[in-house]
UniProtKB/TrEMBL annotation:
Organism: Brotocaccenecus cirricatena
GO cellular component, one term: bacterial microcompartment
Subcellular localization(s) per the UniProt record: Bacterial microcompartment
Sequence intervals crossing the membrane: none
Record SUPFAM superfamilies: CcmK-like
Signal sequence, renumbered to the chain: none
Pfam families: BMC
Keyword annotations of the record: Bacterial microcompartment
Family: Belongs to the bacterial microcompartments protein family. CsoS1 subfamily.
Segments forming domain BMC: 3-87
Listed name of the protein: BMC domain-containing protein
């Protein structure tokens, strides 16, 4: 089962910096980036749990350096069907 990693930042530039750092730090797949309002942007990645933790740590550090990190979170074993709630491509499907 693939794990999920999320970083929420204030502003688009910290989101790009976080996304860049996450995909460079570990073998993860960028699942999406969504502007959620009020200046907040969420970046999501999928991969194996160790890679996700490494990627989220790197992304959080990059976001802090480029702007403002709001929060970061790792979901190790998401429940079946949980991806429907998120609205991003977070499933195991490899289309």
């Amino acid at each position: 089962m693939r794990s999920w990693g999320f970083i929420e930042v204030v502003g688009y530039i910290p989101a790009v910096a976080a996304a860049d750092a996450m995909v460079k730090a570990a073998d993860v797949t960028l699942a999406g980036c969504e502007v959620i309002g009020g200046g907040y942007v969420t970046v999501a990645v999928t991969g194996e749990i160790g890679a996700i933790r490494t990627a989220v740590d790197a992304g959080a550090a990059a976001a802090k350096q480029a702007g403002q990190l709001h929060c970061a979170h790792v979901i190790a074993r998401p429940a079946e069907g949980a991806a429907k709630v998120v609205g991003l491509k977070l499933s195991d499907d490899k289309e």
